[in-house]
Amino acid sequence: MEGDSISEARGLPGLTSQRGRQVTLTEEGRQFQIDIKQKKYQKDLKELKKGVDIIKRLEVAGEEENETLKEAYIQWKRTYIDLVQTSSELQGLLSEVDLQQHLSRHQDVMPELNTMKAEMEKKLEPTHKTQEVQPSVASSRCSVRSKISLLRLEDAQRRAELEARAAAAKKRLQMERQKQELQWKMQELELDTEREILKAKQGALLKFEEEEGMCAPGIPIQRSKEEEDAMRASELPVPKSKLEKQEASSKIAVPEQAKACKESETSNDPSPSTAADVLSSLVSVLKDQNKQSHLPLIEPGVFSGSIDKFPLWLKAFETYVEHRTSSPVERLHFLSRYTEGDAHSAIAGFLHLRTSDVYVKAKEKLVARYGNDFLIASSYLKRLREWSAVKSGDSKGLQRLADFLEHCHMASSAIPGMRALDDPHTIQMVLKKLPVYIADRWKRLVDSSVYGPTPHYPSFADFVQLVSTEGRIACGPVSSGAQSEESPPARNIRGKAHAFTSSHEKCEACGHRSEEQRATQQVTTARAVRRPCVICTEPHDVHTCKKFMALRLDERKEEVMKKRLCRGCLKPGHIWRDCRRRDKCDKCQMSHPTLLHDDKLMKTTASAGSHDKTSSGKQHGGDTQVKASSLQSTAQSTGDVGVSNCHTMIVPVKLYHENQPEQPIITYALLDPQSDASFVTEALCDVLQPESIEVELQLSTLNGRKIVRCSSVSGLVVESSEGGPAVDLPTLYSRHEIPADRELIPRRETCLKWPHLRQVAEKMPEYHADAEIGLLLGVNCPRIIKPREVIPGEEDDPWAVRTLLGWGIVGYVSEGEPTGCFYVGTGSPAIE
């Protein structure tokens, strides 16, 4: 009876009273009953475990036949029956989720309890048999009732478990069907959405074409194949869903709630407002795409191996190339296209591979070689160490340094190795390159930070902010106005220049060319363009050609005639009559190459020349000396080779491009106040790569006027070789060489020979044997050629002049009389 009542209670949402009336529990009542049953279940479980321990202790004590042990057996079995009954009642009250958890815990406990129960029944069996010899009616009835009750409880428990499992399986099947139904409905909704989007897109295209005038009336719109297929699919009837087929085959009834949900969801078509929003958004997207299509194409630059430029280049490459294609082969092709030099050579071997990871390996190699944080940080620090000192008044130089410091500060946030910039020694190193007034302000800032409420040394960010502020102030309107008054802008030279270089005119007139000048010219020519030999096509001059030197004199002359070479310099393109750079013979000191020297011809010429010289001396003795006085030769008959008896204003300078102040070149500048234009050699232009424009220049010299083709160069900056304010040069004109002898460069040892010049001996710049004369600065550079200090000496003594670029010496510095020039030629102009 008890088992039947339990099973009936299990299937109802409430309990059954003693009179058989169904009692419906509220949610609070059900929860109250669940709490009571759970406490009772836990209590019985603890008593069973405790009873097992008591029985084991009694068995160990040897009291198996004792009444105490038998009572313990009987009490444990009663508790076991209560536990099973409580579990059955609890199963009828729990929800599906809680029921599964309870059954799981109950099934874990029951095997051990059932084993213990079986052992106890075996131990109690002999006792029951002895009692059956003289059984009593009451005991037999009690035993039978207990067994029946126990069997009913076990049956009720198994029945409840099976019912719970069946209900859970049924509910699980129902949930799976609902889930599958929702998936199919989502697919149908996606198809409907795509159809609506296609319709809205067509309408947007029509509207856009009407607004832009791209589509004339009556012309059908050309659709793609995909759009036509989608339109045809949208016109087809919607097939019966898989859910309906499954329901028809299995005859399983779907819950009414799911059917209602299906009807409500299938009836929800896109509203007109939603379609209008989609239409407007598509129109805006198409307009944005049309605007973007008219923008210029953005490409990453070509990377050649500069470590400090690698991070920016890599970001640009990943943004504009890597993210737009997923093919490793295409990425590798573009990586090869946008690299050159050493960077391209590093990944050239990967171009032969076609594996999926070839691009990743090539990129990793570039990152390992040029993207190492330590290498990038070292590159930035090296540029800081090699940065030229910024002198007082150089506002643009200060601003360039401030910009580079800001670049370093921004890079330090992404490159861990650049945290060394916060080191006080690094800041002190940069501080030495700044003007004194900025260093004083930094000292005040350091003092206020170190001795402030929270003592600390200012960071590199504070230093960058200070330099940036000073650079902005230096380039402000007040400073710029003062600077413009001090150095007026360069005049616009419209194709005319007047160059008067007296020293070179004298030298060209008398035909004198020293060994050092010829060597310098050869080095300059070699730096500019190394032309092959016309005799053997090897990269050397004809003067050093072994094949040409091995020929006889008549064969050399025949080869010169055949190759149409000049007999004055052994170069093609002109004849001996028009040669302006004739070589000097080492044997006779005449104006012809040494390889064409003819002893027989020289003997005949010498005898005739001596007769002409004697007769002309008698007729024009006084006039020759007067003409030679106007053109003095710089050569001296006695003394060491390479030492001149005359000096002029030729000073060493640092020349660099305004965008690359960290890469200066040491060269000599000829300060010529007789020239209203400035010139630079083509060799320096090839190295510095300034902005240039091809122009025609009219040169006016002592030999007349002539139009020459050259390049107009801008963007160069010059400063003293020993440090000083930087000066932006005006427009320069490129020439093959600057016509000045190296013997004219002032030396320190010259100052020691004259008492009034000894005071500037230590101030004279050092002599640079490897530097060429690459600049000629005229009166269009007034800040540079203007004398700042002069030490005149006596009437005929040489004098010292200090300019913005340093000290120089002008005048005759030899104690002997200068050698007169008895040959006056109509040579080339100074800058030709």
Summary of the model, kept short:
Residues 1-24, 220-275, 599-640 are annotated as: Disordered. This protein is an alpha+beta fold and 832 residues long.
Structural account:
The chain has five domains: 2-129 and 141-183, no CATH class; 307-371, no CATH class; 375-482, no CATH class; 513-615, no CATH class; 646-812, Cathepsin D, subunit A, domain 1. The longest helix has 76 residues, at 137-212. The strands form three sheets. It has a ten-stranded mixed sheet with strand order 3-8-9-12-7-13-6-5-10-11. α3 (67-91) runs parallel beside α5 and α5 packs parallel to α8. The protein is of the alpha+beta class. The radius of gyration is 54 Å and the shape is elongated. The chain is 52% helix and 10% strand.
Architecture blueprint of SSEs:
Layout: H1 2-11, E1 15-16, E2 22-23, H2 27-60, H3 67-91, H4 96-131, H5 137-212, H6 225-235, H7 242-250, H8 256-266, H9 272-293, H10 310-320, H11 328-337, H12 342-347, H13 358-370, H14 373-385, H15 395-412, H16 424-431, H17 436-450, H18 460-474, H19 477-486, E3 496-498, H20 502-510, H21 515-528, H22 546-549, H23 553-563, H24 599-619, H25 621-629, E4 646-647, E5 650-657, E6 665-671, E7 678-681, H26 682-688, E8 691-701, E9 704-714, E10 716-720, E11 727-728, E12 732-735, H27 748-751, E13 773-777, H28 782-785, E14 789-791, E15 799-803, E16 806-812
Parallel strand pairs: 3-8, 6-13, 7-12
Antiparallel strand pairs: 1-2, 4-16, 5-6, 5-10, 7-13, 8-9, 9-12, 10-11, 14-15, 15-16
Biased composition (Polar residues): 15-24, 626-639
Protein name: CCHC-type domain-containing protein
Region (Disordered): 1-24, 220-275, 599-640
